[in-house]
Design goal:
Radius of gyration: 12 Å
Distance between the termini: 10 Å
CATH class: Alpha Beta
Strand content: 5-15%
Largest sheet: 4 strands, mixed
Shape: globular
Order of helices and strands: HEHEHEHEH
Mean pLDDT: 94
């Protein structure tokens, strides 16, 4: 159930233009300090995982590993996505709260 809520929130963020997807756009949002949360697919490559872990740590952006490339992409109406960046603080907080619920 938790997963459905997170995917639903990602869809809302996408429709509200508060979400960037794909490695390049997500990294730009982290560097530009517009990303409030980065979600990385569980099946993202080791290199991608390391790059995002380092950048998110440096820029102090929370990062979660959640879902697969396919499910992340599907949630936002796109093809496979290894990373998405949530740019709205309220939505980012709601997603983090959902992830903490078990």
């Amino acid at each position: 159930m938790k997963q459905n809520k997170v995917y639903s929130l990602l869809g809302i963020a996408m429709r509200g233009h508060n979400l960037v997807s794909g490695e390049f756009q997500t990294m730009e949002a982290v560097r530009g300090k517009t990303a409030r949360l980065v979600i990385l697919a569980e099946d993202a490559s080791e290199n991608t995982r390391k790059v995002f872990t380092d950048k998110c740590s440096f820029y102090q952006v929370p990062m979660l590993v959640f879902g697969t490339k396919e499910t992340l992409g599907h949630a936002i109406g796109k093809d496979l996505r290894a990373s998405v960046g949530v740019c709205d603080a309220g939505l980012a907080d709601a997603i983090i709260a959902q992830m903490k619920e078990k």
